[in-house]
Structures are given as structure tokens and as C-alpha cells.
């Protein structure tokens, strides 16, 4: 039988055989590793080994191109009995990027017992060609992405349909919020309104970030291999569950604090209701939307459509509606549990909170064991938590605005969602462009250094400026369609007049213009700092979109009230 060993430059690859034979990779690899074995051989055997080794080294030097560094040599042990039997040594070097971990296996015995040291011979093989071949394939993929620049028409056609689908979902979410704002749980526990932007923002903090990561991986060809594809999927699903539970808990804490500060009252039952509703909604919504995102990216790849243009808008098409429906239903069930029958089922909310809180370490462990999500788990919390705090600020504005202007509820998910969707497309495309030209830490040629010029952001001839113009031009026609749907369904508490439409569209355009400009700067800034924009930028941008959207919408309604358009009782 044959005995195989592959040892690289790292001592970790030596495995058990390196420790047993006192392997030192820095000093005379073959001589020090197998000196104790060779010392037991006959002089003729030693001379034969040295002669074969010298011949192979001379052949390697002759084949190596001039000016190149010496190739990395990997010792491999075989037995003379295998050679005499006509058995070729196994090809331990594969093109699998994980072969370093998966192929350094050692079989110290044959079927007939231990292999005698006299039968050992050393063969040196060259691993550098396979490494160069893999690097060449990656460079070829990057080169293809560099030269694949889309026209404005292509970008518009690929973005507009998912944008409309997402808008229909946001219109439905607005209608749901317009209805549930009159439910007892939203009236008695008004802090639930603070949860709305924070939990709706999860689609930006987690789902759009997931879509951006998967889109970049798909564009770079990392999802073409089925094994690697499943590893990416499982790791990212576990990561989003862990992040959803933590963010849901922190969002509930923020809502409790923001609700307690102005009133100075604290109700333990309301606190558990907010916490349980937030954590359950976040977990279930991320599981549903994560599955949809994975299917969209894989299907886009098979249909030869750029996932960056499709995945992030579709993430929001069902995101707002699913999240808001889950939050309303769960909070209403828990509210009935503490009010009906004198609170006989008051234990439901605390039990749910503890159960979901204890499940978070399990998801963290799964994502930590996955190499694709380990770094995000360690270093990806800051943008997600900061984005949650920013979105909660928007929720605080919404809590006060709804009490003064009932008509604002139906438009909040729409204006926030449109801004977040469009800026997420731009951020995802910028991130993919940077990934195809280098690695985080150094800006490639043609990238923006420092604070960008607003004129260059929208009016230069580059592909990013072209994309920004297309996305900005989608704002007006999209919102007009969504306003028509609301008017046709007689939803909301405001008549959609010409003056209302003008003021509303001005607020929406200001929001998207600011977001696209900030995205152009933030993506390059994160890349220069060595961070992956797929994990860092979209949470900040969508949270900023929620804050700007809610604030500008409140200003728009107050402006309409000042100029005499006080039609706030429509739909009551």
C-alpha cells in the first residue's frame, strides 16, 4: 500500500507526522523531516535518494522561467513496494482552494502492518503551478467584470421592474400600517411605533447586506461551485439569525427607553411585550427574507442578470409587508395575553423572550465555524447596531408625527423603502466594482479619493455617475405610480391633491439625492479603511434613509398644514 504526506510551508500542514519526526520547515525541509528515517537506511539507499533528489531539483531549475522565484516544493512520501506494484502515488495537490486543509492526511500503516523504513523514498512535487492556475482564473474573472460595463438603458431596464415590485410591497405595508395604527396595542403601547422603522430597517441592516454579499460572491464566481455555494448559504443564514436576535433585543430596549423618558413611567408587561414582539418578528422575517434572497441571487445568476440590480430591490418587495404584518400580529397576540382574562397568560412574553435569547449563542457558533462569515460575526456588529439606533431615531419621529398627522402612516414605509432600495443598488454596484479591481485597503485606479464632488457624483461620464442618474430619475415615476395606487384604493387619511404631490415629491427627491451622494463617499471610505462595503455601508445608508424619509415627510405634512391643506380626516 502507499503512504502519502503533503507538507507546505506552514508547520500546521505537517500534522502528526511533522510532530513525530521533529519537522522543521525553515531548515532543510526534506533532510530534517526524514533524517531519522534515512539514518536507518543502507548507504546505497541513501545515495539513491540523494541522486534522485538532485536530479529532480536540476529538472525543476531548468523548467523554471528566468526572473521568477523558486517554486514552493512540497515533499510527499511514497513506498517502494507501491512503485514496484505499479501503483502511482495519489495526486494530493488539487485545485480545490481548501485542499490545504483537506489533503494533509497521513496513513502510517498498510493493510499488512506498519511500513518499514527501508521502503520509504522521498519525492518532491511542485505545487506552484496549481496556485498560479487558480490565481489566473480569478484574474480572468476580474478582467471580465472590468470590461462588462452596462449602459444606462440596461441599468434602467434591470432595475425598474424589481423597483416597481418592491414599491407594490411597500404600498401594501403602508396600507397595513394605516390600519393597525388604530389597534388597541398601538394605542395603549405607543412604543410599538418606535419599533416599526427599526424592524423595517432590518431589511437594510441584514437582508440587503446579505443580498449584497451574495451578489458580489456570485459576480466573482464563488457560487459556481455547489459545495462552496451551500457553505455560503448556511453560514450567512446562521449569521443573519444571530444578528436579527441581537438587533431585535436592542431595538426593544431602545423603544422602552425612548418611551420611558418623556412619560417617566415603566410597565414590566409592556417591556416584555416589546422585547418578545421585536425578537420574534426579527427572527422570522430574516428567515423568510433570507430564503427569498438566496433564491433570487441563484436565479439571477442562471438567467445572466446582474444580481446587484435585482436582489436588493426584491429584498424590500416583501420585506416591509412581511415584517410589519408579523410585528402587528405578534404584538396583538401578546397584548391580548396580558389584558384578556385578567392577564392569565402573562407568562407568554417572558417565556418567548428567554427562549429566543438563549438560541442566539447557537447561531453565533454556527456562523463562527463557517469561514465565510467568521470575520463578519467578529467585526460586523458596529454598523448593524449603529443603524438600528439611527432607525430608532426615525421611529421616535414617527411616534410623535402619527399623533399629529394620521395621514403620515401610509406614506412612511413607501418613502423610506424607495430611498433605501435605490441607494442599496448603488452601494452594491460600487462594492462589486471595487472587488473586481483589488482588495480592501487600497483604492484602485479611477476610484474617488477623499470627499466626492456632488457634480461629479451625478454628472460625470463614469459608470457610477450614470447609475446615480438612472436611479435618481426613477424616483418621480415610481412615487407617482405608488401615489396613484393609494388614491385608487382610498387608503390613508389624506386626499392626494396636486399641491400634496409636489411637496411629497420634493421631499422624496431630496432624500434620494442625499443618499446617493453619501453612498458614493461612504463605500470608498470603508474600502480605504480595509472594511468590506458589502457588510458595512448598506446598514448605515438604509438607516439614514429611514431617518431622512420620516423627518422630511413630517416636514412636508407640517408645511401642508401651514399653507392650509389640512385634509387630515380622510379615511377615518
From TrEMBL:
Region spans: Disordered: 45-123
Membrane topology listed for this record: Multi-pass membrane protein
Keywords: Ion transport, Magnesium, Membrane, Transmembrane, Transmembrane helix, Transport
Intracellular or extracellular location(s): Membrane
GO cellular component, one term: plasma membrane
Membrane spanning residue stretches: 151-177, 183-202, 233-261, 273-299, 311-335, 347-367, 379-398, 404-425, 470-489, 495-528, 540-563
Biased composition (Low complexity): 54-69
Any coiled-coil regions, as ranges: none
Gene Ontology MF terms in the entry: monoatomic cation transmembrane transporter activity
Domain of life: Eukaryota
Protein family (similarity comment): Belongs to the SLC41A transporter family.
Name the record gives this protein: Solute carrier family 41 member 1-like
Organism: Branchiostoma floridae
Gene that this sequence comes from: LOC118416572
Amino acid at each position: 500500500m502507499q503512504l502519502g504526506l503533503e507538507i507546505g510551508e506552514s508547520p500546521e500542514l505537517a500534522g502528526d507526522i511533522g510532530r513525530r519526526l521533529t519537522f522543521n520547515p525553515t531548515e532543510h525541509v526534506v533532510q530534517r523531516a526524514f533524517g531519522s528515517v534515512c539514518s536507518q537506511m543502507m548507504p546505497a539507499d541513501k545515495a539513491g535518494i540523494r541522486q534522485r533528489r538532485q536530479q529532480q531539483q536540476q529538472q525543476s531549475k531548468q523548467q523554471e522561467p528566468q526572473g521568477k522565484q523558486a517554486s514552493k516544493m512540497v515533499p510527499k512520501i511514497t513506498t517502494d513496494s507501491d512503485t514496484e506494484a505499479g501503483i502511482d502515488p495519489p495526486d494530493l495537490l488539487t485545485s480545490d482552494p481548501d485542499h490545504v486543509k483537506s489533503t494533509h492526511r497521513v496513513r502510517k500503516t498498510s493493510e499488512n502492518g506498519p511500513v518499514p523504513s527501508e521502503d520509504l523514498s522521498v519525492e518532491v512535487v511542485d505545487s506552484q503551478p496549481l496556485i498560479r492556475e487558480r490565481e489566473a482564473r480569478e484574474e480572468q474573472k476580474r478582467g471580465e467584470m472590468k470590461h462588462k460595463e452596462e449602459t444606462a438603458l440596461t441599468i434602467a431596464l434591470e432595475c425598474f421592474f424589481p423597483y416597481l415590485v418592491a414599491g407594490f410591497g411597500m404600498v401594501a405595508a403602508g396600507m397595513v400600517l394605516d390600519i393597525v395604527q388604530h389597534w388597541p396595542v398601538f394605542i395603549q403601547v405607543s412604543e410599538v411605533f418606535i419599533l416599526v422603522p427599526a424592524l423595517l430597517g432590518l431589511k437594510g441592516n441584514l437582508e440587503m447586506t446579505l443580498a449584497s454579499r451574495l451578489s458580489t460572491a456570485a459576480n466573482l464566481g464563488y457560487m459556481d461551485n455547489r459545495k462552496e455555494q451551500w457553505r455560503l448559504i448556511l453560514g450567512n443564514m446562521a449569521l443573519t439569525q444571530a444578528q436579527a436576535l441581537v438587533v431585535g433585543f436592542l431595538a426593544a430596549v431602545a423603544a422602552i427607553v425612548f418611551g420611558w423618558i418623556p412619560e417617566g413611567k415603566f410597565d414590566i408587561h409592556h417591556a416584555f411585550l416589546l422585547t418578545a414582539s421585536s425578537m420574534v418578528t426579527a427572527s422570522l422575517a430574516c428567515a423568510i427574507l433570507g430564503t427569498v434572497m438566496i433564491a433570487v441571487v441563484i436565479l439571477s445568476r442562471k438567467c445572466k442578470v446582474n444580481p446587484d440590480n435585482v436582489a436588493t430591490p426584491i429584498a424590500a418587495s416583501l420585506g416591509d409587508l412581511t415584517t410589519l404584518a408579523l410585528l402587528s400580529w405578534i404584538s396583538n397576540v401578546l397584548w391580548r395575553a396580558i389584558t384578556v382574562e385578567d392577564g392569565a397568560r402573562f407568562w407568554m412574553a417572558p417565556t418567548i423572550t428567554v427562549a429566543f435569547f438563549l438560541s442566539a449563542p447557537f447561531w453565533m457558533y454556527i456562523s463562527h465555524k463557517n469561514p465565510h462569515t467568521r470575520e463578519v460575526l467578529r467585526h460586523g456588529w458596529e454598523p448593524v447596531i449603529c443603524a438600528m439606533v439611527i432607525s430608532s431615531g426615525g421611529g421616535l419621529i414617527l411616534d410623535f408625527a402619527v399623533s399629529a398627522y394620521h395621514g403620515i402612516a401610509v406614506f412612511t414605509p413607501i418613502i423610506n423603502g424607495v430611498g433605501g432600495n435605490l441607494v442599496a443598488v448603488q452601494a452594491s454596484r460600487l462594492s462589486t466594482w471595487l472587488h473586481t479591481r483589488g482588495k480592501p485597503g487600497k483604492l484602485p485606479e479611477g476610484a474617488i479619493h477623499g470627499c466626492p464632488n456632488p457634480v461629479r457624483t451625478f454628472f460625470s461620464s463614469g459608470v457610477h455617475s450614470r447609475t446615480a442618474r438612472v436611479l435618481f430619475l426613477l424616483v418621480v415615476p415610481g412615487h407617482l405610480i405608488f401615489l396613484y395606487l393609494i388614491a385608487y384604493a382610498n387608503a390613508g387619511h389624506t386626499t392626494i391633491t396636486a399641491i400634496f404631490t409636489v411637496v411629497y415629491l420634493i421631499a422624496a427627491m431630496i432624500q434620494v439625492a442625499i443618499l446617493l451622494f453619501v453612498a458614493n463617499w461612504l463605500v470608498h471610505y470603508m474600502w480605504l479603511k480595509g472594511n468590506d462595503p458589502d457588510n458595512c455601508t448598506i446598514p448605515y445608508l438604509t438607516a439614514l434613509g429611514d431617518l431622512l424619509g420620516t423627518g422630511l415627510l413630517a416636514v412636508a405634512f407640517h408645511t401642508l398644514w401651514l399653507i392650509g391643506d389640512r385634509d387630515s380626516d380622510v379615511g377615518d
